[in-house]
Structure to design on (399 residues):
């Protein structure tokens, strides 16, 4: 059948769907081209996200050809539609599976197949892929009728289990992580779920506009922008927020809503000696250790940042009686445990400054930071006096 005849037979609804999926294809290509700017230093995340984009591109491309071919007569169209259908179904479930893997990796910063939960995770996609291969010879999931219309068969539920089950699994994994873990990241699941859900819902309501994949592509764009923010505001060495983002959070001091009401400043003692005697690579390892200790120790809704060099700032959410002191006690115990058990060629020691914020005591957040800074240097001078170094500590140099 000539291409011109196929185009003439396309309805206005189909043309709209084709246009939307072509837009989706171009958006995916744009993200694919620029992705290395975000993931260049992380080959695993780059590979997973790139795989997501590849399957998303095939799904969108498949939808374009599907709307061009479906309902048109001819044996060649029948063969092409069968191939396009296979591509669509395989790409759809593979995208959903890789999304679940990517979310798990993003949350936990690793991916291992050792746990039973993750071994079970692969079962639905394997069953679906086997079903699609069988479907080529014996229709069990869908069938292309002689007039080139695709009809779903009873085993189509395998596709739905994989297609919707994996995003649900990823969302549950995300919720559990947010409740149990403390690691900081820019990965708002809502940025993915809301556009994707709107696309799915609109398609379900209208039954003529196929907006699922354009919604998913918009969702992936939102996630990609969030990941770019992560690279901007997360200190890559420690996993904590950086100073730029910390400064933006100071506006929440005493705002009466989602505010922070107490703070801690930590400054490592003798850090220069670690760099000078063991090398800067070991010094970087020490800073990374500090970030991990704070991440694992601090309670929920506590904000921690690498303020600069070997200085760290902590803001405490809605401090109540004894909480500030308890957090400082927990941090001290965590560092002592690390020094005893980590087997590093160094011990991590620090000086600490603590204060509670109130508008009555501090005219502005900068005054509060100065208070923390002064108390921290009082602690540092006491540390050096105890070591037998009685001279005043220079704020520009740790000795």
């Amino acid at each position: 059948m000539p291409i011109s005849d196929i185009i003439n037979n396309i309805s206005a609804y189909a043309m709209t769907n084709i246009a939307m999926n072509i837009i989706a294809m171009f958006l995916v290509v744009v993200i694919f081209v620029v992705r290395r700017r975000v993931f260049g230093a992380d080959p695993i995340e780059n590979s997973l996200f790139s795989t997501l984009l590849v399957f998303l591109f095939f799904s969108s491309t498949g939808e374009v050809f599907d709307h061009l071919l479906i309902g048109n007569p001819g044996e060649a169209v029948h063969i092409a539609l069968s191939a396009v259908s296979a591509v669509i179904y395989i790409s759809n479930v593979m995208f959903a599976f890789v999304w679940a893997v990517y979310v798990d990796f993003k949350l936990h910063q690793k991916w291992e197949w050792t746990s039973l939960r993750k071994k079970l995770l692969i079962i639905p996609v394997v069953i679906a892929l086997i079903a699609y291969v069988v479907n080529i010879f014996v229709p069990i999931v869908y069938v292309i009728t002689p007039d080139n219309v695709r009809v779903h068969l009873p085993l189509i539920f395998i596709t739905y289990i994989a297609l919707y089950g994996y995003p649900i699994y990823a969302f549950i994994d995300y919720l559990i992580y947010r409740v149990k873990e403390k690691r900081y990241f820019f990965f708002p699941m809502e940025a993915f779920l809301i556009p994707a859900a709107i696309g799915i819902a609109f398609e379900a309501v209208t039954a003529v506009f196929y907006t699922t994949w354009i919604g998913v592509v918009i969702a992936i764009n939102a996630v990609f922008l969030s990941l770019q923010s992560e690279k901007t505001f997360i200190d890559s060495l420690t996993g904590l927020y950086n100073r730029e983002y910390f400064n933006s959070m100071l506006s929440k001091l005493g705002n009466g809503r989602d505010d922070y009401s107490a703070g801690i400043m930590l400054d490592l003692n003798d850090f220069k000696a670690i760099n000078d005697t063991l090398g800067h690579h070991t010094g970087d390892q020490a800073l990374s250790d500090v970030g991990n200790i704070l991440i694992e120790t601090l309670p929920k809704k506590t904000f921690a940042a690498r303020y600069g060099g070997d200085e760290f700032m902590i803001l405490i959410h809605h401090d109540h009686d004894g909480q500030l002191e308890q957090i400082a006690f927990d941090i001290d115990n965590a560092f002592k445990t690390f020094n005893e058990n980590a087997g590093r060629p160094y011990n991590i020691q620090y000086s600490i400054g603590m204060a509670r914020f109130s508008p009555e005591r501090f005219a502005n957040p900068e005054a509060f930071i100065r208070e923390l800074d002064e108390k921290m240097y009082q602690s540092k001078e006491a540390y050096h006096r105890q070591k037998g170094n009685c001279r005043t500590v220079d704020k520009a140099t740790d000795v």
Remarks:
- The chain has a mean pLDDT of 83.
- The chain has two domains: 3-233, 243-387.
- The longest helix spans residues 75-108.
- Residues 243-387 form a domain with the Alpha-Beta Plaits fold (CATH 3.30.70.270).
